Amino acid sequence: MTAGPSGPPERILVVGASLAGLSAAHALRAEGFAGALTLVGDEPHAPYDRPPLSKQVLRGLFSPDTTLPRRPELRAEFRLGTPASRLDCEARTVTLADGSTLPYDRLLIATGTRARPWPNPEEASLDGVFTLRTRDDAARLSARFKAGPKRVVLVGGGFIGFEVASTCRDLDIPVSLLVRDGQPLAAALGPRLGGLVGTIAQERGVDLRLGAEIERMDSEGGRLTGVTLKDGERIEADLLVAAIGAVRNVAWLEGSGLAADEGGVLCDGYCRAIRANGDIVPDVFVAGDVARWPNPHQGEALVAVEHWGNARAQAEAAARNMLAGPATGLTRHDHLPDFWSQQFGLTIKLVGLADGADSLAVVHGSLDARRFVALYGREGRTVAAASIDSARWLPAYEAAIREGAPFPPIEGAIDQPRLRIEEP
Fold first, then answer.
1. Per residue in 68-111, pLDDT tens?
2. CA 363 – CA 409 distance, rounded (Å)
3. How far apart are CA 167 and CA 171, in angstroms?
4. Which of 30, 235, 236, 318 could form a disulfide with 287 if both were Cys (CB 3.0 to 4.6 A apart)?
5. 112, 23 in Cβ contact below 8 A?
6. Element (H, E) at 395
7. What's domain 345-403's architecture?
8. How far is the C-alpha of 323 from the C-alpha of 341, rounded, in Å?
9. Nearest CA to 84 among 248, 252, 251?
10. Which residues form the Reductase C-terminal domain (predicted)?
11. 3-state class of 164 per DSSP?
């Protein structure tokens, strides 16, 4: 049994007022914490849900106000619109950008990520160039979509890019999607399934450009008028969305002594922060997108995932461990990463991490029907499962992934095709 930090806390500070931060706050009260609870957020908004921003909000189906529900018994102080700027682990204080200092007995770092900005600041400042991460981003972009742009250029081959492309087609907006790599969604789904999603996008009218990169953005009077590709082709467009990844919010931790870099804030399996010298900090915890932690389902390999389910589960584990005493011990965070995406009328779900898989097998349905379950294997073990519009088998495969079952783990099911194992 692993012991928790000594002494019950009277003051708990959560830096990061989003899903992970609010989930931790709710869990702390549910676990019986009655002391002072403060949440710090860099945005002026109360904690809100991000997944709808690239889907229902852009379509105009939801208001940008996707505020998460708050339980009446929360009794927390919110310091919003003022980011943290410094952590002093020895003094147990966090300094905010306005100069105020907040003490703590336990601290949760849940500062998440921000959209990676377009690398050319002059181009990034053009009217018509956007990123999509916050509710304010979504509100501004939704308003431009309603105005009817001539063409939208999306840059990036990840799920945000494809979800926004799907929204554009739903709104009958012409869209070009530029993917620098040879296959879209390859990191998340592998080339085979990523290529299938790319084909579906093309069938729905997306101008998909693989291996395409922008040489420069063209403008007139400070407004975007188009982009010129490295091969010399010009695409006329009045909107561009840079969906080129995320940056973990760790800059404020410089000088804190914690092991924090562009890969996230390092923590152990119990969500406790780790110093640069390898020592555990027993009163500082980490959760959500900013955390880099040992994943027991990948042989304790360090991972950082930007998934809704993990943010909530890790925050709840951190909350329990903040309050743990010698009698109860600490709770291991062993959430199996999972996520879902809706695009082009399809629901895509993934359990586990497909990155690094060396084999793939469709175990239910078929790729041709665009309704299937596919499994990923690595070194003879099942490591992930993906589905398109066919999620009823996923719980069974989730159990197989947790057990490290051989690949493939289930054969001879009623609706299972003849298995053919291939590269992912």
1. 999 988 999 999 999 999 999 999 999 999 999 999 999 999 99
2. 10
3. 6
4. 318
5. no
6. helix 394-403
7. 2-Layer Sandwich (3.30)
8. 35
9. 252
10. 339-409
11. helix
DSSP code string of 70-128: --GGG--EEEES--EEEEETTTTEEEETTS-EEE-SEEEE---EEEPPPS-HHHHTSBT
Domains in the chain: boundaries: 11-114+247-323, 117-244, 345-403
Rg (CA), the chain: 23
Q: Are strands 152-155 and 301-303 parallel, antiparallel or unpaired?
A: unpaired
Long-range contacts of 83-88 (CB under 8 A, 24+ apart): 83/40, 83/41, 83/42, 83/252, 84/15, 84/40, 84/42, 84/111, 84/252, 85/252, 86/252, 86/255, 86/256, 87/252, 87/253, 87/256, 87/258, 87/284, 88/256
What number of residues does the chain have? 424
- Cα 22 from chain centroid (whole Å): 16
Going by the DSSP 8-state scheme, the letter that residue 229 receives in this structure is E
Token digits of residue 292: 């880099």
d(CA 161, CA 385): 22
pLDDT digits (tens, 9 = 90+) for 309-341: 999 999 999 999 999 976 678 999 999 989 899
Q: How is the beta sheet containing 129-130 ordered, strand by strand?
A: 129-130, 239-242, 152-155, 175-179, 207-210
Q: Strand, coil or helix: what is 59?
A: helix
Half-sphere exposure of 326 (CA within 13 A, CB side): 2
| Token digits of residue 395 | 């719980």
Instruction: Say yes or no: do domains 11-114+247-323 and 117-244 share a fold.
Output: yes
Query: What pTM value is reported for the model?
Result: 0.93
CATH superfamily of 117-244: FAD/NAD(P)-binding domain (3.50.50.60)
